[in-house]
Every structure is written in structure tokens, then in C-alpha cells.
Amino acid sequence: MIGIINYGSGNVQAIANIYNRTNIPYKIIRKPDELNDVDKLILPGVGAFDETMKVLNSSGLKEKLDEEVLVNKKPVLGICVGMQILSDGSEEGDLKGLGWIKGYVKKFDILKVREKPFTPHMGWNNVDPKIQHHLFNSVENDLGFYFVHSYYFEASNVNNILATTDYGDKFTSAVINENIYGVQFHPEKSHSNGIHLLSNFSRF
User: To pair with 117 at 20 to 30 A between CA atoms, which of 21, 25, 136, 203?
Assistant: First the structure.
């Protein structure tokens, strides 16, 4: 059973719709104790870093998520801002991130971006996996995924980089640390590639 965390930031229903269509069981999580009922977790994310962390901190979800992910080793997938909050912090705000993957979130340097609009990085782009991983099984690399963001995750350890994408410079578009995964793109907006990726995650 997959738990989709509803903390007021993210396209929760769009992810739920994909799992409905693919007959994969899920539950939308709003309270810490509901995390006991699931064995995999998704952290969606649309919005600002600090606002997302404020909700997690004030709701009690952060402490319970730390237990489920770091102690009980439940697989977790962060999406967009949900990936960024896996880090130690962000140039976008002042609050600490979850700190599950060492690194910092930075804003794109518009001097290195050749195409307007410079930010946000919005639309379809290719994702280049750095290691062979079943998260990307059946994904068509030429089709790519859909992105909307102005900040990117700079991982401290190259071993945590699962995939990169080119936008002026190469940036990390997917991260990994044992049972912890993050993708900067939106699988719920990425048609067949997104369906494959979310289905792959359900089988972890």
C-alpha cells in the first residue's frame, strides 16, 4: 500500500488518479498515525520549500516520517519540491530540510541558460540515468519527463545522483540514498513515462 502524503503542497489527486487507473492500492495520508497503514511513501510537491517544511514540522508528520523512512526503511519517493526537501536546505528559504540526502538546493544561474524563459525550467526534457535502476524500467529516454522548477538539488555525494538533465548546465534530476528516492520532474504530468515510473515505485 502506497501512502501519498497530503501536506497541502502537491498534485496529490493526479498521482492518485494514476494509481486508480493502474489498480495499485494507495491511501492519502493527512495524519502521522496513518503512516502505520502503508509500506511505501510519496512526498508530492508544488510550491515553496519553506511552506512545505512548515506544514511537515507543525503537523507532526516530520518526526513520524523520520521514523518510518530512516528506522523502518520504508521506500519513499519525493517529487519536485518533495525531492528538494530531502536535502539539508535551500536558497529559496531559511528552514532546514529533512536532511535525508546530503546536499543543498540552489537557484539556476540564468547566465548559463540559453533559452527564454530562463526560469522556471518548464516543459519536457530528457533524463539521463547515471546508474541502471528499476525505477526507470520501460521508460523511453527520448520522450523525457515534464519539469516546472527554478531550483535544483546539488547533491554533496555523487553516489546519490541517480539521473541528470541538461538545462544550461547538467543538474541532478533524480537522487537516491538506499530506500530514499527523489525526482525533480513531475511523473504525474509525464504521460506514459510517468505511469511507468510510478508503477515501478509501487513494486519496490
Answer: 136
Number of domains in the chain: 1
d(CA 144, CA 131): 17
Cell 506514459, residue located: 192
Of these residues, 80, 121, 149, 196, which one is catalytic? 80
**From 68, 121, 149, 186, the catalytic residue:** 186
Confirm whether 186 is a catalytic residue.
yes
What pTM was estimated for this model as a whole? 0.94
Domain with 171 in it: what CATH number? 3.40.50.880
Q: What is the dihedral of CA 105, 47, 169, 153, to 10 degrees?
A: 30
Catalytic residue, from 68, 121, 149, 188: name it. 188
Is 188 annotated in the active site? yes
Structural domain containing residue 137: 2-202
